[in-house]
Amino acid sequence: MVQYKLYYFDVRGIGEPIRLLLHYVGQQFEDVRFGKEEWPTKYKSKFFYGKAPVLEVDGKQLGQSTTILRFLAEKFALAGKDEWEKAKADEIINFQKDANTELAPYLYVKIGLREGDLDKLRVEVLEPGVKRIFPLFEALLKESGSDYMLPSGLSMVDFQVGNFLYTFTKLEPDTIKAYPELIKYVERVHALPQLQKYLKLRPQDR
């Protein structure tokens, strides 16, 4: 039996879509979480790139969050139904990562990871970014013709995008309320029966 071990910080972050996928498919894995104090002394040197998350499969390490997610999605038939959908999945995930980079200066200050003028960042980063990004997510959802980001239904994309948008339902509910279809989408992903046990026990919800 294949043994999986996932290493990541004790937050949702970029490791959470991987956790969600593994829980959704019912794959047992060791969820190794650590704090930022432990990272430089206990874990960083263990990994080839010195970054997390890292998935260990029977002792072999795989790095880079999107690569890990795609590897597991291929294994568990959640990567898209054909070549075109797989390409669209990559496209949407890369768009989400760009969106995260664009909005990160505000979000990092909001959760206390960095110092900065939150009001200024709201006006200069959050508001224009959301006005550009969120309608595109809505359009992708509508274009798919399903309740998820790909026409064939649930895929790895939904764990990635759903986790990203979930952050706004917690940190910026007044911002995302202008996009009710995205709120419904987040709720739909997080209402999947296979995730309920994990979500009720999830250590960090921010």
Can you characterise this structure?
This protein has 206 residues and is of the alpha+beta class. The protein has 2 domains: 82 residues, Glutaredoxin, CATH 3.40.30.10; 110 residues, Glutathione S-transferase Yfyf (Class Pi), Chain A, domain 2 (Up-down Bundle), CATH 1.20.1050. The protein has 9 helices and 4 strands. Strands 2-1-3-4 form a 4-stranded mixed β-sheet. Helix 1 packs parallel to helix 3, helix 1 crosses helix 6 and helix 6 packs across helix 8. The longest helix is centred in the middle third of the chain and has 28 residues. The radius of gyration is 17 Å and the shape is globular. The mean pLDDT is 96.
